[in-house]
């Protein structure tokens, strides 16, 4: 049986989140500069997005640029911004054809102006699409997001709109940038690194984590299928015991 055939389409993860890591190392192994790796990483983005759309996954969140990534050499930051702009331009027709809606999370106001404009226009044009929602995390960091939510809620308390008793986990998460996006069921990180790097700290509370040794430019559809098959073999207990799950308690 192929990997694709092993996937139970009735039990797909609704939301897959990916830390796309290892572009620089992939390029270095080939004697090339880091930007060459990022360029090849775009092909993996296309393949994995297509794979998720074909399967019927509802949300795919891609960590494309973290708040901390602004500290990289200016040349690399510029190349990443340029690559993003070109990819959005080139991929818009494909997003439309495949009924994919583009969303974003992060401090988008920190992106170059022309990129902000492009993001906004792609999001507006794809807003009515009802297939996969592709969420790009750009200039995103989870601690920034959580601190922001706390600040907004504090202001509501100060203004007398709510009292501190109203602050529940459910209320809190409505103030995150992911308010209208369900939590991921599966989080994949490539390149063999075993860390979260400030990604969706709140939302990953009960997410199944999957780590691939492959660098992102080598992660294509088959690897996505492999991660989903492994995900489907896991028992998600959410604090309960196996026997309760069997009885649907
Ligand atoms: C991931 O690959 C892409 C971004 C963070 C933008 P890296 O650029 O982090 O590649 P490595 O981890 O240095 O190999
Ligand atoms: C995480 O990768 C951020 C993205 C994939 C966008 P990094 O390469 O920046 O993470 P660290 O520095 O290895 O933790
Ligand atoms: Mg990295």
Protein traits:
binds magnesium ion, Undecaprenyl pyrophosphate synthetase, alpha/beta, 249 residues, binds 3-methylbut-3-enyl trihydrogen diphosphate
Q: Can you walk through the features of this model?
A:
There is one protein chain. The radius of gyration is 19 Å and the shape is globular. The mean pLDDT is 98. By secondary structure, the chain is an alpha/beta fold. Helix content is 44%, strand content 14%. It has nine helices and six strands; from the N terminus they run αβααβαβαβααββαα. The protein binds 3-methylbut-3-enyl trihydrogen diphosphate (IPE) (2 copies) and magnesium ion. Residues 20-25, 65, 69, 80, 191, 216 line the site of one 3-methylbut-3-enyl trihydrogen diphosphate.
Summarize this entry quickly:
It is built from nine helices and six strands. With 249 residues, the chain is α/β, with parallel strands linked by helices.
Q: Mind describing the biggest β-sheet?
A: 6 strands, parallel
Number of strands: 6
**Ligands bound here?**
3-methylbut-3-enyl trihydrogen diphosphate, magnesium ion
What structural class do helix, strand and pairing data support?
A: alpha/beta
Outline the fold blueprint.
Layout: H1 3-6, E1 15-19, H2 23-29, H3 34-55, E2 59-66, H4 74-97, E3 101-105, H5 113-126, E4 133-140, H6 142-158, H7 169-173, E5 186-189, E6 208-211, H8 221-232, H9 242-246
Helix pairs in contact: 2-3, 3-4, 4-5
Bound molecules: 3-methylbut-3-enyl trihydrogen diphosphate (IPE) (2 copies) and magnesium ion (MG).
